[in-house]
Write a structure and sequence with these properties.
A four-stranded antiparallel beta sheet has the order 3-10-8-5, with no helix packed on it. The chain folds into two domains: about 40 residues, no CATH class; about 80 residues, OB fold (Dihydrolipoamide Acetyltransferase, E2P) (Beta Barrel). It is mostly beta strands and about 130 residues long. Helices cover about 10% and strands about 40% of the residues. The C terminus is likely disordered. A hairpin with a 2-residue loop joins strand 1 and strand 2. It starts with 12 loop residues before the first helix and ends with a helix.
Length: about 130
């Protein structure tokens, strides 16, 4: 008979962390691990889709951020200049700027898509705590 209480049979926090890390690619579902009296439940959710950054005004777009940069929610990706006024274009959430859709010094309309941002995981300041 095998003793299930020996050191080799104990599930540690590090073991659970490794298992959860392996599951990061799963799209969605619920996982429950039970071993030696330790239970861990995890709910897997799909990663949030990239989001559009839209123009808050019409005018000339002057980008400041470059693709690949990490931005915090509210941090400007650039400015819109019109009639001597400068309006910042804030990132709507924290994440990585994937691409700018409008070239520098181009005229943009109100609510036009200017760039695309990939939301950061919640633990790094993504959607849940960005507001």
């Amino acid at each position: 008979m095998q003793d299930n209480q020996g050191p080799a049979s104990r599930l540690t926090y590090a073991d659970v962390h490794r298992v959860l890390a392996l599951l990061q690619g799963w799209d969605r579902g619920t996982l429950s691990l039970q071993y030696n009296g330790l239970t861990v439940d995890a709910v897997m959710a799909p990663a949030p889709a990239p989001a559009a950054i839209r123009s808050p005004a019409l005018g000339i777009f002057r980008p400041q951020a470059k693709a690949g940069m990490f931005l915090r929610a509210g941090e400007p990706i650039g400015n819109i200049k019109a009639l001597g006024r400068t309006t910042p274009v804030p990132a709507p959430l924290s994440g990585k700027l994937l691409r700018t859709l409008v070239p520098a010094d181009a005229f943009v309309e109100y609510d036009q898509e200017l760039a695309v941002i990939e939301p950061a995981p919640a633990r790094l300041g993504g959607r849940p705590d960005a507001g």
